[in-house]
Amino acid sequence: MSTAPATTTARAALALARACHPGPTVAVTGLTALLARPAGHTLAGGALVIAAVLTGQLSIGWSNDLIDARRDRAVGRTDKPVAGGELSESLVRVAIGFALVACVALSLALGPQAGAVHLLAGVAMGWAYNLGLKATLASPLPYAVAFAALPAVVWLARPGDRWWSARAWPPLWVMVAGGVLGVGLHLLNALPDLVDDAATGVRGLPHALGERRVRWLAPAVLLLGSVVTAFGPIVSPTSSGAASGRLGVVDATVLALCVVLAVVAARGRGRLPFLAAIGIAALDVLGLVLRS
Questions:
Q1: Which pick of 16, 90, 174, 282 has the fewest CB atoms within 10 Å?
Q2: Closest listed residue to residue 247, CA positions, set 222, 228, 223
Q3: Which helix (H) or strand (E) holds 266?
Q4: 230-270, pLDDT tens digit by residue?
Q5: In this structure, is the dihedral angle defined by the CA atoms of residues 87, 90, 96 and 99, taken in order, positive or negative?
């Protein structure tokens, strides 16, 4: 029996996995999984939120590769599966369609409020970035909105609380920290591609700032998000009605590690700054988990 069809299918599957922008996709899905615990989800509830976010991220990643295929070919980005001819555009469109259908169904299964926030403030923002906002000075906006909305989706997906109840939402500082971290991630994610982007007409905020400014500004923005995460519980009332009043050992340790990763992000090259940024975001959420 010939193994050619199986081999072809396996290659297509691997190429699809690479085309979905696996780094950001895994990072956002992983952050969602970490947030599920402090939000108080059951295993089943957390799995449903994770699945909804994963399918949304797959649609965003695949659409990015598909929309950018012509520009990627123009600058010789043969490492991209669609631009390099490893994937047909028709297959990617089918994959996007399945991901979107699954995303809508899973999002609505979270409840109308969580589903609406995820689809409108999360997935739609990612698509808006891919479809044109990335080439404008408003390029950080989709990242800021989507990352601020992510904890809201996780909290709103819990059963029981009405959406207008304060208990249904995450603490405000969690959403602020998410939005700030999203801006920092955008700046560092764009850093390795500034030259190629500019050569094909993409000039977002990172391109207007230039590599030197982005290299120090992005880690500073990320650290600001870490500071909000560390000090948010201190200035915000707890369930007992009082603020904690001091920086705990966990928060201080997390903040120190974030400073180290911010230095790595500022001095690193290639994809290392973005990986360091993901590490900062993961540490911030881990601190939230350990505190819960």
A1: 90
A2: 228
A3: helix 249-267
A4: 898 887 655 434 455 577 888 899 999 999 999 999 988 88
A5: negative
CATH at residue 13: 1.10.357.140
Q: Where residue 276 sits, what CATH number does that domain have?
A: 1.20.120
Instruction: Record the tokens describing residue 166, joined without a space.
Output: 């304060």
SS3 content of the chain, % helix, strand, coil (to 5): 75, 0, 25
CA atoms within 13 A on the CB side of 51: 15
Domain residues for the domain of 157 are 9-137+149-164
Q: Could you read off the pLDDT of 51-92 as tens digits, one per residue?
A: 999 999 999 999 999 999 998 888 887 788 998 888 899 999
Q: Is residue 143 part of a domain?
A: no
Tell me the three state secondary structure of residue 133.
helix
Exposed/middle/buried for residue 138 (C-beta within 10 Å: 0-12, 13-18, 19+): middle
- State whether residue 34 is helix, strand or coil: helix
My answer on whether 240 and 116 are in the same domain is no
Query: Is residue 146 a contact partner of residue 122, using CB atoms and an 8 Å limit?
Result: yes
Q: Is 193 helix (H, G, I), strand (E, B) or coil?
A: helix
Assigned token pair, 177: 């920290």
Residues 277 and 227 placed together within one structural domain of the fold:
yes
Tokens linked to 172: 């405000």
Contacts of 141 (CB under 8 A, 6+ apart): 125, 133
Same domain, 36 and 154: yes
The DSSP element (H or E) to which 279 belongs, if any, is helix 272-291
